[in-house]
Design goal:
The structure is a homodimer. By secondary structure, chain A is of the alpha+beta class. Helix content of chain A is about 45%, strand content about 20%. The structure holds a DNA duplex (30 and 30 nucleotides).
Chain lengths: ~250, ~250
DNA sequence: CGTAGGTTTGACTGATCTCAAGTTTGGTGG
DNA sequence: CCACCAAACTTGAGATCAGTCAAACCTACG
């Protein structure tokens, strides 16, 4: 019997449902769409931390759904890394590359990750046969693009403290949307080096900014866990307005 | 008789053809697609410099093709503007918003601009009836997204001189692709304030960096005209690798 | 209990910003 | 054609935010 997405083990079923629900909302999917989705052929892959899932310049022949662990999109300039977005469980990794011949950025695992891979051809076929999916995928990529734009603004126009605070706001909202915690308290297994690579700062300065945010009573990041004491206050300090996430995250 | 895109005045026909050719390449369009495109209903709009074509937070009911003049996508943080991309003649303005209910960024005219507007409904219908168009629009948005990612890298990880140089490289390639000049010499009617808003720098520092690039014999920007003496050298100085434009621009 | 990765701290440097004053450019009206 | 004006550009001096370098300190884990 052929392995279908619907057969995925129960320990990772949650993130798969999150991913489907996101698509269902973006594309207004019906029951037949749902069945088609869960009938997609897949492979389950687990990697260690620090490995690349997609490499810049390579061909992308699969479309993946992140089931557990954190990853990031990044690009290099010389020996310097710039993270351009974080990927949390339930995110689809490769929609940005699905219609393009070569990857223009890499996707790297931050923690050990588990994900499903589906052959790109099958996903494209699904999008073609069922326009609702095409629309859902397209919208998903547009929301990603909106996030990239916000990051340009974040890095280009906000000072170090706001940048870091803004990043935590975004992750809080997206992680909550993925059903992995609340803004008050959630797991975030990224290092200060990662935060620096995402905000265009050095790890040393990230450390100082986190200290400042802690001193302000806004954010605590310890033992890979985040606590946000006063969400409203933090949003103000970060100039965070979640509209750019288009209620999706 | 209904006015169709194909009827557009000859003085702006060039950019319209550029726009269509870009879509044709992205979506592998045939003659019937071509006829459908040129039969779209449209309005021609001309604005003065400095006005907004699309406003953040508003609904986007039209899809526009820029025929002449320069524009930019931008976002505000407080009273500070961050340009997130430039738009040149032949670019489609609103694909980033076509599937989303509200604009997450503004589009502003840099010079006086002329553009065609087509009702979003007609464009969505076209994309639905003719999948080749759906694919072309989708790919166009993906290439935009790739450019946003490169800007995150540019602003986050390159120093001021490289940032400015990189911006000129991108514009040179895109303007050449639009048939509006060559990298050696092209018109670029943007101010140093605009360059600062696009690179996350102050206009004063942009001025100094342009001076440095001029002293290096790399770029001259005078009288709204750019001259690039040594393209290879400039690309090296800017860490510019055009793959992220996906040969489209 | 040793080690590696991650965090914290301090002292110093430097890239970029700010403020402020000129100068040039391009358009407009007389 | 010239005079004028606003916008854009240029330049200088000083302030500051963030980077660099270096060392010490956790803390998870084998």
């Amino acid at each position: 019997m052929r392995r279908m997405i619907g057969d995925v083990m129960p320990d990772h079923h949650h993130s798969l449902v999150v991913a489907f629900n996101k698509l269902a909302r973006l594309g207004d999917l019906d029951d037949a769409d749902r069945d088609a989705f869960f009938a997609l052929p897949f492979q389950r892959v687990t990697t260690k931390a620090e490995g690349d899932i997609v490499s810049e310049g390579g061909e992308v022949e699969h479309c993946s759904i992140l089931l557990s662990g954190f990853a990031c999109r990044y690009k290099m300039s010389g020996y310097q890394r710039q993270i351009v977005s974080f990927l949390v469980p339930g995110d689809i990794l490769d929609t940005q590359h699905m219609q393009l011949p070569r990857a223009d950025h890499s996707i790297g695992a931050i923690t050990a990750v588990t994900f499903l891979t589906v052959p790109s051809a099958a996903v494209l076929q699904l999008a073609q046969d069922r326009p609702a999916f095409g629309q859902a995928f397209w919208r998903d990529t547009l929301i990603d693009a909106s996030i990239f734009r916000e990051w340009v603004l974040n890095i280009g126009r906000r000072d170090a403290k706001m940048r870091v605070a803004h990043l935590f706001c975004e992750l809080a909202v997206r992680i909550e949307a993925a059903g992995l915690g609340t803004p008050e308290c959630f797991d975030l297994p990224i290092t200060q080096v990662d935060i620096g690579d995402a905000t265009g700062l050095t790890p040393v300065h990230v450390n100082r900014m986190l200290g400042a945010l802690r001193a302000d009573g806004l954010i605590e990041h310890k033992h890979r866990q985040v606590r946000i004491q006063d969400w409203t206050l933090l949003c103000r300090a970060a100039d965070f307005q979640p509209a750019y996430l288009h209620e999706a995250a």
